[in-house]
Amino acid sequence: MTISFRRTGGSDNPVGPRTGLLTTVHGEIRTPAFMPVGTLATVKTASPAEVRSTGADILLVNAYHLYLRPGHELIERLGGVHRFMGWDGPILSDSGGFQVFSLAGLRKVTEDGVHFRSHIDGSEHFYTPELAMEVQAALGVDIAMPLDQVLPGESDIQASKAAVERTLRWFERCRAAQPQLATFAIIQGGIHEELRLMHAREAAQAGAPGFSIGGLSVGESKSSMWAMTEVVTRELPLDRPRYLMGVGSPEDLVNGVARGVDMFDCVLATRLARNGTLFTDSGRANIRNARFREDPTPVDPNCDCMMCAHFSMAYVHHLFRNAELFGYRLATLHNIRYLVRLTERMREAIAAGAFEDFAADYLSRYQAVDEGVRREQKAKWVTRGKPEGRTRA
Amino acid sequence: MTISFRRTGGSDNPVGPRTGLLTTVHGEIRTPAFMPVGTLATVKTASPAEVRSTGADILLVNAYHLYLRPGHELIERLGGVHRFMGWDGPILSDSGGFQVFSLAGLRKVTEDGVHFRSHIDGSEHFYTPELAMEVQAALGVDIAMPLDQVLPGESDIQASKAAVERTLRWFERCRAAQPQLATFAIIQGGIHEELRLMHAREAAQAGAPGFSIGGLSVGESKSSMWAMTEVVTRELPLDRPRYLMGVGSPEDLVNGVARGVDMFDCVLATRLARNGTLFTDSGRANIRNARFREDPTPVDPNCDCMMCAHFSMAYVHHLFRNAELFGYRLATLHNIRYLVRLTERMREAIAAGAFEDFAADYLSRYQAVDEGVRREQKAKWVTRGKPEGRTRA
To answer: What is the pTM of this model?
Structure first.
């Protein structure tokens, strides 16, 4: 399986917003792109046709989870993950590095790989770079991730450096194991600028069909996250897609695109949805709130999702107050559609050379959940944007 | 709101299968009909468009539940229950008699009505025939049910007679309260043949746009249930629809249609679905069973529901093993479609004068969940069917 990427617009600055087209055998992905998460080969509550109706071009599955259940060999015998889950568009798989390294106390790491016990039944497994790639090859995904060594956000520089070096070695093992797969390089380094720089340069030098920025959004400050992102994107080739792993709030998408990121995924949209939290241009709204009890209007009059097109806030409030599963589904489709539409708006703004204005306007109106975070983001944007008159769009 | 009913085929025997067309301002209902249950103004997990895609012409909501939450007045202010839930087809509401009388220990019954405490928050309410009708008028349903007095299945004849007489008086109060509503008469009488006969005759004499058979499928034997059904349908006018309340397994639909029933509802299809139990022509199958783990075929190759059209048993098994909400939805749509398709098959058989053969064949192949029940049903059918050479279709 091969992929190709073509920039279609935006800045020649490696740390600037751009649009692109990523082509796979299962279809094209317009970037910037948000990828809905279907960990277990299902985007929770949604049918493949509904995911398609949100405008999403690609979705994500998790190799670690599917390795444990139902098993990658079973999925391969059934014709691969596309057929298994009924989604004929592009699929990207995470290798499960993040999941395996999150199993504190259940795992033991060596240069060969990771011994761990299943979080489901306690069974013992040995997950190696080669096995992670075998799983992804069996699934038949369009874009694979290598097994990387993920460390806690607060790791010191020695541990982080060792993890970076191991991740570089494991990437070569991954490539060698399944050379036919389109496997992105994952760049680690915690919040250590010199490590991020080193890893980005070495990864760029080694070459890859795309580059993932891992190990962020794991507890560090937003300003650290964006500083690290910039350190990395500045080093990456312009003609390869950049994927910021596990990042995906509305404000994060805007800030990421501003820094040259092309692809995002996050369970936040779907997880918040099942809790009744809905994205709107003025921030998050929780539909369980009593103020929506009798509201006859849709959550977002500009949204064309199934929920906003057909149902009042009063009805969705009623569904959530009674734990009705249809409510979880409507909210899920709305939040995914919101993020996909946000990428559409950013693509349009980039094409029009107006991304900077769009981003400044968006971030000034979007009330992030934490006021402190929002102020920090606005300040950050202002520092990098308007005042200097820099045009990165 | 008015309705009209026209028989379109079948027997002139009041205790025989027939087809019909029930017309409401929101559309037509082809009978025999299965009505999916949307207690709280949502058929659990399914969108209105999906309910429509099952072929269902009408669905059911519950006045008692909607009175308690979100409140009928709120729904009325929002334009009625059709607009509230986004279903533009016919809606029938149950009055909530069954629910109110199920609140053992929480209620006190007088001739005026029922004092009860909410099962949700303990608040006190006084539910009367007039209030039950006010609720249904506010919802704006196409077909309403009167408040009836429901007794436990094992009630003695004195208590049952008193309940029948009260139900007759309450029906007149219901009609007087909202004369514009199409309100069916509900026939009670437990498993006392003389009471069922008396109530059916008095209800037929008083007249109504349709007749409901209540108080069955509450623990009595299947043979008692069908004996009572026949006692009632024999007394009812041919030109009015008959609705067997709360009954709705596949074998029950066939046995009910054989006895002149036109309409059915039951939460069984949707409740079983969320437990992984799927209807097939050979009986119930639980998709969690390990034998489906790697089955690449659909549950029912003859079924055109979303699940059977697009997904393997292996995939649905995987969804259920992981408590994925999409699985509950697929199973729900399958079971509803199965029952609606069963009514379609029965309508075709009746039109072809072949219902008796269809029913005998169906019941001989359908393995009811309880083998004893199945044997009893088969014996009952044989007694009433083939041997005497009676043609009721």
So the answer is: 0.93
